[in-house]
Every structure is written in C-alpha cells, then in structure tokens.
Design the sequence.
C-alpha cells in the first residue's frame, strides 16, 4: 500500500496533464505525417519520458520554495513522495527518453538532447527571469522537428508549423504562470508574466494563441475552409475565456487547461490538413 501511494505521488509529480497533453499533440502530428506504428510508439514514449523528466525536475528543484509558500498541491510538500525519489526518477526518465530517441536515429537523438536541455534550463533558473518564455517557445517549436526528423528520409517541418507551435508554447507559459503570481512573488520569482502583470499577460495569451491558430488555418492549403474557420472560431472562444479568467484577482488553473484544449483543436486541424 505504501509503494502504491508513493507511485501515485510520483506520477502526480510528473505534471501528468501537460505531459500527456504534449505527448498526445506530438503523436497526432506524427499521424498527420502518416507515420507508421513502429515509429509512432517510440515517438510517443520518447516525448512522454522527456516531459516526465522536466516535470519531475520542476518539483525536485522547487521543493524548498514550495514548502515556504505551502504548496499543498505538490506531492513533495504533502510528503507523499520524497524530493530525492523525484530527483532520481527525473534522471531515469531523461535517460529513458534518450534511449528511445536513439531508436529513431542520430538526428532525433540530438533533438531530444536539445529538448531536455531546454526544459531543464527553465527549471534551473530561466523561470525566474525575463527570458522565462524562451524555453516554452523553443521547447514547443522544436516538437515538429522531432517528428519530421523521424521520417525516412529525415526532413524539416514547414516554418509556419514551428512558429505556430512556438506561439502556443508562449501562450501556455503565461497561462501556467498566472495562477502562481502571488506565491512566486513571495519567493523572489520574477518571470516575464510577473514583470508584465496580469492585464498584459492576458493579452499575450490571446494574441499568441490567436496568431498560432491563424497560421494553421491560413497556411494549411489542403484544409477544408469551413472546417478551418470553425476550428479558428472554437480556438478563439477558448482563448478569450482563458484571457477573461486571467484577469481575476486569483487566476484559476483552468486557464492552462483551456489553452490545452485550444491546442488540441489546432493539432486536429493540422492532422486534417
């Protein structure tokens, strides 16, 4: 029973919702490229382990800060799992991500190394600076590259696809940071959302997500126009709701979930296109 409780606490420390969401985005994109099943599995597993590693390292490196502000939503603070175990699991997940990536080729292995470095750089300090958006932009922007380099022969994705993914990453960063603004200020975190403030951050969420969706619907030349603009309308509805919630005195975590839903809509449009 104790082992089961620890395993559950460890799973919660992986930040499972964004981890599985990003993995799903990547697999759907790979399906859009007609990727065979023997490559879909390692693509999905590689990204999942990479996301687990970044999520676990976040809870490990933030343990002391989370204790100070009483983050009871964190398994480490609730003593469901030790910070040491979370650290070890993060390192093991990174190793597994690299092992899986090697089965897809040298290029994908190099991209996986880059994605791990980008994710860890955020947790190791960039999250407390004005450059906090950069790991999200780069991390999301490089996901299509990981997919297309797995194709035989390897190729680079279209520029607009990488830009759309990067813009969604920026929107996700602001949506993820807003609910923690008060707690972060108490521990000296001064990321870009903190510097700009709530109103400007809400505007960034709307603008970045809208630009990403607009790129998808205007550049996907084989996408049915009716479906494209219906998808754009649905995206904007989700984004505007997220931005409105971002203006509340204490922004809810539902903002981030709304951005995930909007991202799913855009990935679905990419697959259809």
Sequence:
């Amino acid at each position: 029973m104790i082992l089961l409780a620890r395993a559950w606490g460890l799973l919660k420390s992986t930040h499972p919702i964004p981890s599985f969401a990003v993995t799903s985005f990547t697999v759907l994109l790979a399906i859009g490229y007609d990727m065979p099943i023997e490559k879909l599995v390692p693509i999905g597993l590689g990204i999942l382990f990479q996301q687990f590693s970044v999520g676990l390292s976040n809870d490990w490196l933030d343990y002391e800060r989370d204790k100070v502000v009483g983050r009871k939503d964190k398994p480490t603070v609730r003593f469901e799992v030790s910070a040491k175990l979370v650290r070890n699991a993060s390192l093991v997940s990174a190793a597994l991500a690299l092992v899986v990536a090697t089965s897809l080729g040298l290029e994908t292995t190099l991209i996986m190394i880059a994605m791990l470095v980008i994710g860890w750089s955020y947790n190791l300090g960039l999250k407390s600076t004005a450059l906090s958006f950069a790991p999200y932009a780069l991390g999301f922007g490089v996901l299509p590259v990981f997919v297309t380099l797995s194709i035989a022969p390897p190729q680079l994705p279209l520029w607009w696809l990488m830009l759309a993914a990067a813009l969604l990453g920026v929107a996700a960063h602001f949506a993820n940071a807003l609910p923690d603004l008060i707690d972060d200020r108490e521990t000296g975190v001064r990321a870009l959302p903190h510097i700009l403030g709530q109103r400007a951050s809400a505007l960034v969420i709307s603008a970045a997500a809208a630009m990403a969706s607009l790129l998808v619907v205007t550049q996907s030349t084989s996408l049915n126009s009716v479906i494209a603009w219906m998808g754009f309308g649905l995206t904007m509805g989700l984004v505007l709701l997220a931005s409105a919630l971002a203006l509340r005195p204490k922004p809810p975590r539902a903002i981030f979930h709304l951005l995930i839903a909007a991202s799913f809509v855009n990935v679905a449009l990419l697959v259809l296109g």
The chain has two domains: 1-157, 158-273. The mean pLDDT is 87.
